[in-house]
Amino acid sequence: VYRHIMSDLVLPVMLESAQSDTIASKRSASLEFFHNLWKECHKAGSWLDNTTTGPNCGPYGPGGSSHGTSAAQAAKRGQQKRRHVKKMDREAEILRYWVQGSIAATLPGAFTNDASEGAVASRGIIAASASLRPSLRHIAERIQDADDRGALKLYKPVMEMVEGVMKKLFLSNEATGDPLRSACIKFVEIVVLCCSSKAQLTSQKALTRRRVQIRDDFALEDLPEGHPIITREGLESVGEYGFATLRGMVTMGGQVKIDVNVLSDMMLGNDVRAGSSQVVAILKPAALAFLEVESSVMQDDEASPQFNIDRSSVDMDFTLNQKSYILAVNAVSTLATNRPVFYKEAATCLARRTYDPPVLIEGGPLANAGVLAVGACLRSSCMILLRNTLSITTNSCDILKAALEKYEMGAQADKAIDSARNAAALKTAGRAARNRAAMFYEWDDSAADKRVTKRQRETDDDLAKMRAAKAKRGLGHGIQLPSNMVDAIELILLNLSHIPSSRPPAPKNAKARKVPVTLDYVIDAVMSNGASLSHEDGQWYDRDGGRAWSMEMAEETRFELEQSIRLAAEVEHDKSKAAELDEKSKKGLPTLFNDQCHSAASDAFGRIVANSAVARTVYQKEFASKIAAKLACTLQGVQPPKELQSSFDMAKVSAASLSKHLHAANGSSEAIESFVTRYPLVSSCLATDVTANAITAATTNMTSPMSTFVLNEAYLQDCRIGEGVQDDKEAMYEKSLDVYAASVAHASELANDKPSDNDRKRVASHAAASLPQHLGVLPFVTPSSLALLGSLCDVQEISKKAAEAARKSSSQTIATSAAVHAAKVAAEKRATAVLLALRDSAFQRTKPESRKSAVDCAVGIATGRYPSIQSVEDKALKLVMNVMFPKSKSLSDTVVDSATDELQRAADYAIESYNRIQEANKNTPLKTDQHKKHLAIAGSEEEKKALEHVKKPAVLFMALCVRRLEMIKTLMELSCQTKADVLLKAVKANMPKLARAAATKYGAAAVALKVSEMATGSDDEIPMVLAFLDNLAPSTDKDLPSQDLIDACLEIQESRVGPDGDKDARFIIPVVSGMKRVDLVEKLPEFVAATDNIFLAALERMGDRLKRQALIYRDEPDPENPALHGMTLCEQLVFLHQMDFAAVGLRQKRYLDAIRLCLEDDEVFTDRVVMAALDYISGRFLTTEEKLPLAYMRTIILTCSKHESLHSWICHVLLPRLIEGKVYTDKRQWEGWMRCAKMLENTGDTGVSSLEAIGKLPSEQLAMYRAKYPS
């Protein structure tokens, strides 16, 4: 009942609420639930109480009277031991859930609201404070019971919880509130108390009294020695640095700024196997930051409370408010009184801060009331420490008194010192002196103890009498068997009258058989302890009462084989005897003996495996396992015993499911299925680790599992054949390893299919967690086995189930949601274990093939070739990039080769999908123009699917390109292949990240030149080069391309001159926004001579950073030293009109077409831009001697046709201005003026007309106009 209600329902549901509930109050209530449950379970008579006796005793109590025989006492001790083990397991379960809930509450990002985030974090830290001491006590009890694994199973989450709180206090980026910081400081105090030594008590009686008085305390003395990881030295370091950190907070009023470089070096350099190392890596930099400040201002006179330090010059990570400051002072005072090892330093710290207390600072964290409160707290703490006897023994009374004399408290300090001296003297004085002082150090409770013992003895006697009376009446718990033969005979005689008159009916499928009850039958049943009653006829080798044996009263032999069995054995031994038999006798003889031999071998093998599970010592277990492994590899075709039948079924199912796992490694499952059929015992032993049966549960405590012995024996079998296996059928080790990997993968699938099955989840988690250790001791690993293990990363289905369950909020599905979420977390942990196994294989294997296989598998997971979810793929990507690649030169080369292979597969897939994508894009109409502007947008679902397929290999390869710049050449060659458009689109979409990272590491100019040198293969690679250059240029308006990058692009343009001497303007387009305007004017003819798209792209990039000045023509501040960069839209039109096309070798038609292209792009060159350009040109024409450009009037005519909004301005401003400038003196421009005036003379109902401008013409020109265009 407890397991179904608590373990399967209540605890998982409450943990799920504490981890992921969206309401902050529910999370807090869930954390408080674990605390209340812990207190409830330790009340008298509860499920976890083993201290209460009598009627209120719980199921884990003593369970019997204190009197009785030695045999009864021994049975009682065995029962107590079993109850103690069960109690420890359930305590550990509650503590683990409690700690995991506290960890989840301290993680950042749970809520978007800062108030809710802080509230939940505070409750989580309070829960962590409450759970720390019980957890450490439980760990100590586990170590005391020699259960190192059980202790480590709880120790790691506890250290993770401590690390989370420390990160919340010291490494949190958000503005931590005072309530949260106060809870963290209280937690640090508890950590220091638990990780430091108690007072050294001399007598055992005093030590016992202290344990009774301070039952909830924990110190290093309570931690047994001998554990390889949980050591006193490691926890002592945590306590020392934690105390130094608290001293620093009291002395400085906050935390001195931590050096980030020191912090990162310490966190990366610590051994992750030691649980306390990460906590030390956080506390140590915080402590060192204060100790560095303290050492710089240390004084020669240590007894002086003066501590001259300029706190305003010290950088702080955070400062303490009133509540947190008082808690820090109380923490130091508490540590001084409870841990003598800290007393002297604590007294010095408090005395110096009392002498130089916090002062009121405008805008500071402490108000006037806070300054007064902190000062009062400091003085009272000094007085408390002064009354302690340690102030005399440590010579700390002088500095404490000096600090108090500043506040005219010298008289009180003298009284406190006298009291402390008297108490210290009485500790070493004789009995007479203690009697004179009337001080009693312990109560005489012997009389009370006698009364309690007597009452308990009477209660136990009454309970024993009641149980004895129930046993006589046939009541009690279960069947009460008689204790002697006489009572047994009497019981049988009494129950003879209750025997039924007829036999019970036999089962429907049972064969009707009558066995006479003879003396042989009875003797056989007695001698075989009832095994003969099972009627196993087919097993002649065992005396089980079957018909295979007949009883002969001979002198020498008592039992003989039945004639048919004996005849089959003789024929098997001597084939010539078969000719003497008739056909009827020959029938079935060839297989009868072999079947019996196989059956005998199967049962013998089962007994060996069972004995290995119950052996007393590790050496016996390993010896039995080695024998079983050798027999399994030798006995070909022998079916497994019934104890291993479930394991054999698992192996068969796993082998049948190989085909869907080996597709990534191009493997086949037929050979593995044949191997499972030919070697059933080998397959059964390999699958025992992933089968939830009795043998698996018993053998999990062995130093090495059964599968390891079988794999080693299979390797030896292959080695006996010779160097290098020639016959694939004899490659036993490789196929055995594949069966083992397939079993682990299938166990994970079963756990994901049924999330509520805890047995499946436990077995799968155990098998996956032990993978790194098991694979590390094997001779070598194969690509197919790694491919099978890579399938454990496929957690997509369980992730979908978890997401679907999370959407359902009904009360009936909350347990299901919790179970599915727990299964998802377990599946992700299994995937992480596989990644760790791949890491170890890549690092520890000596064979290049094994290392390459591990790297290929890790790269395949990172690139999505092995199905997985995003979080697992990110972990695999980090493993490849941050762990494997930097390890060594050979390993980095292997990573590059694997990534190149993945990119080649992506390119092949893109080429194969080209026709399908083109067809799908034709059938999918474009809704917007985004597909033209943004290349990363897919045109159809087919293209979107292909992009997702090739994106991950491209991202990994491009990340490696940052490490090795020469890999960009391979990237361009593969992505620029014909019909590999999808891969090229994916590469271009991720090009900004690659370009920025490469520019940061090597410099933008150097990268540009390097990429240009690599792209020498064909013209297909030029778009990739252009995309690279485009992303190397800064993308923000504030940053302009550097002059080095501009020079590099110009150099690239010069190096890529065409056969006819033409320069490719595309190579300088990315940097035109950073070029000076005078240089752009010189380059403008090159852009005009290019194609329309290149010309418009160049114009767009020129004014990209000058959009706010698009309508302005900027004047150079210093014409001698031009400094303007880029070119506004207005300037572009002006310089286009002023271009001398004949001088630069342009045809007039191309010159006019360039201006027309600008006017047609009315989204960029709006009517306001055109108006500004025409106005500037006309103004220069009017005020200077400059002539109008050739295309000026043509542009005005095109503007009249394009922009009706400018008609009024042209009629009333521009045309009269041109008349004022005597436009009629230029024949070509005068002709254009008249045509424009004619277009606007009669504009219909708009009310705009050029008649006013026409009327301003001189008479001669007006006559010419009317002659050509009559009114």
Structural features, described:
The chain is mostly helical and 1271 residues long. Helix 5 (148-170) packs across helix 10, helix 6 packs across helix 8 and helix 24 (618-634) crosses helix 30. The strands form two sheets. It has a two-stranded antiparallel ribbon. 64% of the residues lie in helices and 1% in strands. The chain contains 58 helices and four strands.
Describe the secondary structure blueprint for this structure.
Elements: H1 2-20, H2 24-41, H3 70-106, H4 114-144, H5 148-170, H6 178-194, H7 204-213, H8 232-252, E1 254-256, H9 260-269, H10 277-296, E2 316-319, H11 322-338, H12 343-355, H13 368-387, H14 390-393, H15 397-405, H16 410-428, H17 431-436, H18 446-472, H19 485-494, H20 519-527, E3 549-551, E4 559-561, H21 563-573, H22 583-586, H23 589-614, H24 618-634, H25 645-656, H26 658-661, H27 670-678, H28 680-686, H29 694-699, H30 706-721, H31 732-753, H32 758-769, H33 771-776, H34 783-790, H35 796-807, H36 814-844, H37 848-862, H38 870-884, H39 889-912, H40 914-923, H41 930-933, H42 941-963, H43 967-975, H44 981-989, H45 991-1002, H46 1004-1014, H47 1022-1032, H48 1043-1055, H49 1077-1089, H50 1092-1102, H51 1129-1137, H52 1148-1160, H53 1167-1183, H54 1192-1202, H55 1207-1220, H56 1227-1241, H57 1251-1255, H58 1259-1268
Antiparallel strand pairs: 1-2, 3-4
